[in-house]
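writing this on my phone so excuse typos. first protein, seq and then structure
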Amino acid sequence: MIDFVHLHCHTEFSPDGMGTIEDLITHVSSLGQKALAITDHGTLGNLVQHWLNCKKANIKPIFGCEFYLRYKEDKTNHITILAKTKHGLNNLIELSNASQNNMHRNKPCITTEMMVEYNKDLIVLTGCPSSVLFMDDYNLGNDYTEFLINTYGRCNTYGELMFTMSNKALYTDRVLQVCDD
């Protein structure tokens, strides 16, 4: 049996959430999974509820957020960031708080400057089909991937693959790797 952990899940705290935190944890627990990341859109309002419910079910909570990112121009993209340690959780909270003061089209947005400032002990996923990688611009995708690797490190940057949608313009092969660390 292969251990599997969901690293990109939305709950009722997101517009596209699939259910409550309790329902998600019950389902994950029934599958025998040992950990669960919840990464709601633009909010960490789920942290305490996620932690409490995971502890009850003996599941390791992984804290994260699918942030709205203003990478280039006026477009808002998605990026998923996870806390690796307690210090990483503090940086995730700081990043979330900073995003609340940087609204764009009624969404709390992070910037590359914020990502650099609060980059320690975080893991970054390249993003879903609403990420920079799916903008049909190879050079922009390359620049974005290099930025993520330079900001978070090669061993903390992962290509996010979603097989339920078309994966056109997928540049994540540049960050899929096995680290020696």
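second protein below, same order as before
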Amino acid sequence: MGEASVSSGWSPAWITIGGAVTYSFTPDTITVAPSEVASPATFIGFSGVTSWGGRDTRMPFHVTSGDWQESDRLLAAIISAVAAPTRAIPVGGFGEFDGVMTGAFNAPRVEGRFSGDRMRAWNVTWGRITGDVTIVNAYAELERGRVTRGGATMDIQ
């Protein structure tokens, strides 16, 4: 177990983490065998390959979150440690994400399938959200999604 100092954009926070990362390397690449990192509310399983410098990365991963705010802080800490200073965003709820990260660690492209409950973002409680998510250049796009809150449903093409 260890601790990671992360910035949520408002003030520093500490998250206790533990895990196991298994990797091998050649003169050109780093290959990560199935590995995991966890905090009290977040589990991340991942594997994949990246080139030295992280430009050519393909890293499939799974996240189970009991608190998306803590999970985002943990992700920001990992990206900050590996590539470039990154801030967490205000978000809430819990859920799962299965996806793949490609590109460079300091400019990643993340694509995957998301499901979350009690979702909160942009000062709005959205309810349950499912869909395909693409995150690139600090922007998230939701496609083939559904937002459900109470008796209301919004489908996103």
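The longest strand covers residues 107-121. thats all i got for now
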